[in-house]
Amino acid sequence: MDFSFFISLKRLIPWFSIWFFSLGYGKVKSFNFENEIIPLLEEYCYDCHGEGAKKGGFKIDELIGLGAFKQNQKKWDRVWKNLNNRNMPPANVLQPYDPEISKILTWIEEASFPPDLAEEDSGIASLRRLNRTEYENTIQDIFGIEIDAEDYFPADDTGYGFDTIGEVLTLSPLLMEKYLGMAEVVMQKVLGPIQEEKEMLRFFAENIEGGRQYGNHRVLPQRGSFEINHTSTITGEYEVKVWASASRAGNEFAKMQVQVNGQEIQTFSIESEYPRKSMYRFPFQGNENQRNRITINFINDFYDPKNRNPKRRDRNLYVEKIEILTPKGLNLSFRESRLRLLGESERQNIKDHHALFSFKKWLPRIYRTDLTSEDFTKHEFFFREMRAKGLSSIEAVRQAFKAALISPRFIFREEAMDFEKPDKISEFALAHRLSYFLWSSIPDDTLWELAKNQELRRNLKKEFLRMLSDPKLNAFIENFSGQWLQLRDLKLATPNPDQFPEFSDAVRASMIRETEEFFKYLLIQNLPVDTLLSANFSMVNQEMAKFYGLPGDFTEEFKRVVFTGEDSAKRGGILTHGSILAITSNPTRTSPVKRGKWVLENLLAAPPREPPPNVTELEEPITKDNRVLTLREQMAQHSKNPMCYSCHVSMDNLGYAMENFNAIGKWRTEEDGMPLDVLGKLSSGEKFDGVQELQRFLKNHKKQAMVRCIIKKLLTYGLGRGLNYKDRALVDDILSDFSGKDVLLADLLFAVIESESFQNGN
User: Fold this and answer.
1) How confident is the model over 357-415, as pLDDT tens digits?
2) How far apart are CA 585 and CA 601, in angstroms?
3) Nearest to 179 by CA among 414, 334, 432, 403
4) What number is the average pLDDT over the span 20-29?
5) Cβ–Cβ under 8 Å, residues 601 and 512
6) pLDDT for 683-693, tens place per residue?
7) Residue 579's closest CA among 517, 634, 528?
8) First to last CA, the chain
9) Burial category of 426 from C-beta neighbours within 10 Å (exposed 0-12, middle 13-18, buried 19 and up)
10) Distances in whole angstroms, Cα of residue 168 to Cα of each of 81, 156, 212, 721
11) What number is the average pLDDT over the span 584-611?
């Protein structure tokens, strides 16, 4: 811990006074440095970081002078984080009270990290590339088609625990190639594949009904018919080609009459003498999804057994193959998406005005703003250039939209400012920030029209409630809770199949859904945040009921189940969910460290320090006196290292309270035949015996920390950036809005949306 800057405190007083005065901070500081801060530092920090001590690697001379101080701001950052996360002072020494820590944190913020006035309230929102989920949902909402972005694009990088962070959503050359390829995939799904030639369907002799097989031909030795059946996929003129020949007899050629659906089309004289063949063609009008019967009749049979030339005695008709050519156009499967894009009902070549209509309607949605006439002119010019090069209207449309899909204006989210309100993002930008926050996609028509008419902000609460009731909210449930609660990690978990044969892929998927549906229920019902811990119910389906051993009738659908009797002591609250317990375990055993760390990180926003180098995890059981030590005893030995103790004392004791659950979340009361000790004890003296007491402790004593944690997670996810020191005041403001009343989950979510940072683009 880098706390050596606290040494020789009294010698630093004049320097700090001069520095504050020079920066103009003497007027805004919220503390008396000499009388309020120094006594705290002397009491809690001086023993390790005072004069003559250099824990953390600091020397006193390194901190004297403004220049040297500025050069060590990264170390100050570590100090702030360690204090804020309660990693220091060490757990085995005297601990400051929360108000005292808050006072020191405020001092560090105001003294060490004054706002940069040149950058403050710059109003410039960071660019954010669409992540895979956002790209997939956006394409679906614009074009009405489904794509699988997860299979096509590489996994998105994460920052601060989320894949919505602008600074890690970079664009590599390889990824750009992927976007180029996906643009073609999208347009093929919307408009159909490029058809340079007419589609062709072939019927060979063996596929033709009537007559009999003769080599690779079908032959009619007397009056009769050949017949094929065909379904026309689009409306238009179809062309039939028949490769036919005949044997000659009598004084005329063989006559071949063709019919479609009983209607005579044409009669041909077959002049080609078998085996030499010729191609005969005729058209017919087909309609969408129409079943057609194509008949070829032999109408002038002739037989003269007395002819001296055997080849001239019998007149027969031979057919080698039949081909049907489909008109240039699209398969029925593309009709809906094509109509959506182009707004036309013709199945043949579109007109140019259909293309221009599509630009007016969809380009604003693709670029996520109300476009100018100049913007449309550019795209129209591109379209006409493609037409001038010989492309059909439909192909020119294809190229124009492909260009839009690889534009930075589509790939990146750029949130414009409101020119009339420089401290606010525009209504369009707010609509998109809100929509991507809750739906991971573009605004629907209602949000779009409100933004266009500058009425979104005045209807924000109403729209928020409407969006909560929309099925697209599942995107927020899956993506936010999946990353905040680390549910995605369960997809990669590998419990030992020999030890835990009951852990199947179906159980894995149901565990994730249980926690998602639980979080969704709390949000939709607007229940208090602490219900996460105090709930006496969960959302359970048939798979999870069997896994938990719950009585009653269940189906594949999840439903709310209230735990009663013995089950109420085992289940209830998120720390008893199989998903959380499984992701915080090792393949063969539980991990109090991982479970405690999960609580600190995800419920209290107080992650422990990274372990020191060369410290290994427990791999082999530790034995003593011919006895395998319990996991708790092994952890106690592991934590004897002074470098490990300060972190393990908090993590392990939280995790011990959850030891009644095995590595996949099943209830147990003993380990290797030994009764489990599930007592947790913090350095500050608090005790909790088992998971239910732990959850009550967190609810009663760490409620504010948990609410603060959720606010931070929501802001990070929604803003697409890590939080800074200025955001601490924002978090405090949001928290203060709930002073003296229950913090309801949906209300908390809306408070984040209403917050200054969410509204102003910072």
Assistant:
1) 888 889 999 998 888 888 888 888 999 998 888 887 888 899 999 999 999 999 999 88
2) 16
3) 403
4) 36
5) no
6) 677 899 999 99
7) 517
8) 31
9) buried
10) 22, 8, 70, 9
11) 90
Residue 546 contacts residue 560 (beta carbons within 8 Å): no
Residues 737 and 244: their CA atoms lie apart, in Å, by: 87
Q: Is 409 exposed, middle or buried (0-12, 13-18, 19+ CB in 10 A)?
A: middle
SS3 labels along 358-392: HHHHHHHHHHCCCCCHHHHHHHHHHHHHHHHCCCC
CB 281 within 8 A of CB 239: yes
Place of tokens 């030590």: 629
Q: Would you state the pLDDT for residue 47?
A: 64
Instruction: Name the pLDDT band for 194 (thresholds 50, 70, 90).
Output: low
Going by the DSSP 8-state scheme, the letter that residue 25 receives in this structure is T
Token readout for 331 is 């398969």
Q: How far apart are CA 437 and CA 761, in angstroms?
A: 14
Q: What are the chain's domains?
A: 4-112 (no CATH), 123-195+337-414 (no CATH), 200-325 (2.60.120.260), 486-701 (no CATH), 704-760 (no CATH)
Helix (H, G, I), strand (E, B) or coil at 298: strand
And the tokens for 276? 């030499």
- CA-closest candidate to residue 335, choices 140, 187, 200, 191: 191
Q: Cβ distance 750 to 464 under 8 Å? A: yes
Indicate the SS3 state at residue 480. Answer: helix
Distance from C-alpha of 468 to C-alpha of 481, rounded to nearest angstrom: 15
Distance, in Å, from the CA atom of 187 to the CA atom of 195, rounded to the nearest integer, reads 13
Say what percent of the chain tops pLDDT 90.
Answer: 56
Structure tokens at 362: 């969809």
> How far is 404 from 378, CA to CA, in rounded Å?
11
Helix axes 505-524, 745-754, angle to 10 degrees: 70
Q: What is the DSSP letter of 36?
A: I
Q: State the angle between helix axes of 427-439 and 445-452 in degrees (0 to 180), rounded to the nearest 10.
A: 160
Q: At what angle do helices 691-701 and 703-719 cross, to 10 degrees?
A: 80
pLDDT the model gives residue 32: 64
Position 632 scores a pLDDT of 67
> 302-303 and 537-540 as β-strands: parallel, antiparallel, unpaired?
unpaired
Q: pTM for the whole thing? A: 0.72
pLDDT in tens, 35-81: 676 677 666 666 666 555 555 554 534 544 344 445 566 666 666 76
